[in-house]
Amino acid sequence: MSTDIEATAERIHEALRSAPTSSPTHRALHAKGTVVEGRFTPTGQLAGRTSAAHLVDGSTPAVVRFSHPGGDPDVSDGVPSARGMAVKLRTAQGDHDLVAVSSPAFLVRDGESFLELLAARAPDPATGVPDPERMIAFVEVHPESLAGIQAAMGAQVPVSYATLAYNGLHTFFLVDGDGGRRPFRYSWVPVGGEEFLDTPADDVDLAAELVERLAGPPEGTAFDLVIHLGTADDPTGDPTAIWPERPVVVAGRLQLDRTAGDVEPIIFDPTNVTPGVDLDPDDEILQLRRAAYGRSFAVRTTPRI
Ligand code: HEM
Fold it and tell me: Ligand 1: which of 27, 88, 186, 240 to mutate, most ligand atoms within 8 Å of CB?
């Protein structure tokens, strides 16, 4: 990995950790979350398209962490926002991590823009709240960020972590047995459909809701892994770009069935893929994520006395 990526990831990580609500014993982002377990069972529809056996047959144990995206571990679940869903498939070939958010587009397409965005939305020292003029100025220079910012502004509070669709946002490649590559994106789509709260109360508790839901019908805690099959012309290297509608296949179903035991410390890293799935070499954000998540993990797992 280039030192530029490492240096930029360090600056971003430091900026995130400088927030007053950041906690050194928690993640620098997605600090508040809850972990459950389940199994992923493929439909077989990716047969011939990838050599990744766990995406074609059998069934694979999964660890799943749902989260609020901010760096404050004490944030109220009633605060409207996108949410995160990090899935670790423990395959015989190593971990395949699918780390997604409920937004249709990421906010930025490179690290410098991310630093600019963090500065633009930081509280103004004079007023204690972000200055809207700075966000407007940011979008003028970065029109590619508009879709992600508008989605963030329009985000609602879900009924449950399990009533939201989550998107991988990056482009990946399916690699078949002959080495043929095809770009794809993926979404985790809740089998019972999406559902949001009309008037979120202050005491929304999505972790407790999930525990109750796990005792109910299995469809209430199941997600389909939907694969959007891209073409050679679809944009790569840019998670701010929303793909045009593409043919989809349902690769399989993730059935959540219990709360997790003691799995921390655990890291979900979107660059953890197995043979049969390739990363997009042009995607700076993906490389920055690997570096930044490693730094955040190192801080939160440092022994303290
Ligand atoms: C440059 C861009 C990004 C940076 C710097 C960044 C930074 C971070 C950091 C520092 C963490 C905590 C990692 C840990 O301690 O394990 C995190 C977690 C997370 N991020 Fe990102 N992120 C970026 C982009 C994205 C994108 C594009 C997505 C979704 C497609 C995403 C989804 C998540 C999720 C779901 C988690 C929680 C993982 C968990 O539950 O352990 N992030 N991010």
Answer: 27
| SS3 category, 161 | helix
Q: How far is CA 31 from the centre of its chain?
A: 13
Query: Ligand 1 atom 42: the closest Cα is on which residue?
Result: 289
Q: Is the CB of 166 under 6 A from ligand 1?
A: no
The CA distance from 154 to 133, in Å, is 19
Compute the distance between CA of residue 274 and CA of residue 172 in angstroms, rounded to an integer. Answer: 12
Amino acid at 149: I
What residues contact residue 244 under an 8 Å CB cut-off, 6+ apart?
234
Q: Is 285 in the pocket of ligand 1 (CB under 6 A)?
A: yes
Tally DSSP H helices, then E strands, for the chain: 6, 10
Cα dist. 94→53, 89, 173, 200, 277 in Å?
A: 12, 8, 18, 40, 12
d(Cα 286, Cα 293) in Å, to the nearest integer?
11
Q: Residues of the chain whose pLDDT is less than 70?
A: 1-2
Q: Are 193 and 162 in contact (CB under 8 A)?
A: no
Residue among 130, 86, 124 nearest 269 (CA):
86
Whether ligand 1 lies within 6 angstroms of the CB of 28 is answered as yes
Whole-angstrom distance, CA of residue 166 vs CA of residue 154: 16
Catalytic residue among 26, 30, 54, 96: 30
- 233 backbone φψ class: left, alpha, beta (φ>0; ψ -120 to 50): alpha
pTM passes above 0.90: yes
274 CB-side CA count, 13 A: 19
Helix (H, G, I), strand (E, B) or coil at 100: strand
Kind plus residue range of the DSSP H or E element containing 171:
none
Per-residue pLDDT tens digits for 204-259: 999 999 999 999 999 999 999 999 999 999 999 999 999 999 999 999 999 999 99
Q: How far apart are CA 23 and CA 29, in angstroms?
A: 10
Partners of 223 in the beta sheet? Answer: 190, 254
